[in-house]
Write a structure and sequence with these properties.
By secondary structure, the protein is mainly alpha-helical. It has one domain.
């Protein structure tokens, strides 16, 4: 995938929430509420894992 195509494929948080809600048959508010219950670290604190090992 080219850099331009990849950039065009990026969606906003709101778009992702709407897609998840539609796929799960729920309202976007329910998805947001459920996500708030997870403790998700910011990307800069993420640990990179090699899944091939």
């Amino acid at each position: 995938m080219s850099r331009e195509a990849h950039a065009a494929a990026i969606i906003s948080d709101e778009e992702l929430t709407a897609l998840l809600a539609e796929a799960e048959g729920r309202r976007p508010e329910e998805i947001e509420h459920g996500a708030a219950e997870f403790e998700i670290a910011p990307p800069e604190e993420a640990i990179a894992v090699d899944v091939d090992e």
